[in-house]
Each structure stands twice: as structure tokens, then as C-alpha cells.
Amino acid sequence: MTVQPSAFAKFSMCSLLAAGLLIAGAPVAFAGSDVVKEYDKDADKTLDLAEVKAAASAEFDKLNKDSDDTLDRAETKGVVKGKAFKAADPDKDGTLTKAEYMTIVESLFKKADVDNDGTLEAKEFHSKAGRALEKLID
Ligand SMILES: [Ca+2]
Ligand SMILES: [Ca+2]
Ligand SMILES: [Ca+2]
Ligand SMILES: [Ca+2]
């Protein structure tokens, strides 16, 4: 990966500030830009809600190993946290439909979109909501 020196400097600052929040190490360092690149269909360097939902829909299908239209806790292990799962499962049947999954995706999208412009840029994926969202789409 090529990184502009200035961008890298900016990122280093950022990661110094965020150091306390980051879990040990480099693997997550460029996760935000990777996820944007991967799902940015119109190549505007940001992900809009439609792009995020398309990715989330594909991820739902991938996670749904038994193809029964819902995700149970085992299928969402490491992807949806217990608390988020409960909140997204209003009928409390222990499974998430795709619609329920999309509700989590939309709410995290809004939380991660700190400048409220309707799109997520790479740096917005570095927030807590952004990282949680990334798990749901990638
Ligand atoms: Ca885009
Ligand atoms: Ca399932
Ligand atoms: Ca449910
Ligand atoms: Ca934004």
C-alpha cells in the first residue's frame, strides 16, 4: 500500500491520540481505508448508506451458514455484541432477520457519520461505532 507522507503523519498523530483506545497493534491501523476501498462502488472514496447496506447484506448471507433467513447468536459470534444483539432483536427470539441486522447497520452508520454528511470516509471507521460497523459489513 502506498501512503502519502502527509497522510501518514496525520494518521500517526491520530493514532497517538487514539492509542489508549486501540487494541494492540498494527493490523487494525488501516482497516478504515481498506473497508472503504473494498465497498466503494462509485469510487468517491466514501461509503454511503446504500454501499454499506449492500455490503452488509452480502455479509449477512455469508454469516448465515445454515441459510435459514436468520442469524442466531452462534452465527453472529464476534460480529454482533451481546448488547447490540439484544437491542436489535425486539421479538427476543434469539435470532436476527436481515431487517433486524440492517437496523444495527443503519444505527451504527449514523453514529459513525460524525460530520453528518451522509457518507463515511476512512477516518470515520476509526471510531467505536465505525469499527463495530466494519465488522457487520466486512
Ligand atoms: Ca462511495
Ligand atoms: Ca442462520
Ligand atoms: Ca428476532
Ligand atoms: Ca461523514
From TrEMBL:
GO terms for molecular function: calcium ion binding. It comes from the Bacteria. Pfam families: EF-hand_5. Keywords: Signal. The keyword Glycoprotein does not apply. Residues 1-31 form the signal peptide. Residues 100-135 form the EF-hand domain. InterPro entries: EF-hand-dom_pair, EF_Hand_1_Ca_BS, EF_hand_dom. This is Calcium-binding protein. It comes from Methylocella silvestris.
